[in-house]
Amino acid sequence: VSNAHHSSESNEHFSPSKVVEPGRILLRGFDLDPASCEVANTRLIRAPHYFDRAMDGFNRPWFGKVWLNPPGGICDNLGRLVLAERKTGKKKRPSCKVSGACGLPPGHEHKQQTSAAKAWWFKLLHEYMSGRVLSAVYLGFNLELQQTTQQRCFNSNGYPSVLHFPTCYPDTRLRFFCPTPEGDIEEGTQPTHANIIVYLPPQWSVLESQRFKALYEEIGHCVWPSDVVRRVQAAA
Ligand SMILES: [Zn+2]
Question: How far is the CA of 80 from the centre of ligand 1 (A)?
Fold first, then answer.
């Protein structure tokens, strides 16, 4: 298995079962897997509803109990992935106008490019704060989220960073699954990043704190923040 499958530039890193199964118990089942594909949902998440890239989950309303393994790489303000080579020695943000790697026809533009993991975090927050999403687990591919979700971006809306939510810090790098050429999945080797698992609870109760820690403490250290994130019902 190539390490390239596990780079944050790739969309193809499927959630490892060892972190999905505690989440399934924690949320009492999943309703929606909004950044997925048929093989990942069928084999690993098994939510009754999923959105793949063609279904454009970034621009749809979400609902219920959500497992979110966001895409990596850079996306624009429409959630379109901008895959591009990294040029060492250049500070410039990757742009498909140079590489043409995003697959859109010549002449298009990408506005407000940011990390897809960050943009999808704020999309999840938007659905959670509105009450459409009841509870969720967000699987963060690397620890950059702790820094970058403190910064504003096109869809941040003043929503809180991952630091305000219950988090598990796995004590080893997670082995994400990869698709095989035969349409199967296999566990990856040589994981490249330390990861985080963030819980958006249905209630900020002692019971939820105990359930979270009981289910995820075998994966790694769990932190339940003292501040409570108060949901406000969105106007629309
Ligand atoms: Zn493009």
Answer: 8
Distance from Cα 108 to the centre of ligand 1, integer Å:
6
Q: What is the C-alpha separation between 182 and 189, in angstroms, rounded?
A: 18
**pLDDT interval class at 129 (50, 70, 90):** very high
How far, in Å, is the centroid of ligand 1 from the Cα of 105?
8
The proportion of the chain whose per-residue pLDDT surpasses 90, expressed as a percent, equals 70
Model confidence at 3, pLDDT cuts 50, 70, 90, reads very low
CA of residue 115 to ligand 1 center, whole Å: 15
The answer to whether the CB of 111 falls within 8 A of the CB of 75 is no
CA–CA gap between residue 91 and residue 138 (Å, rounded)? 29
CA of 121 to the centre of ligand 1 (A): 22
Distance from Cα 102 to the centre of ligand 1, integer Å: 4
Q: DSSP label at 53?
A: G
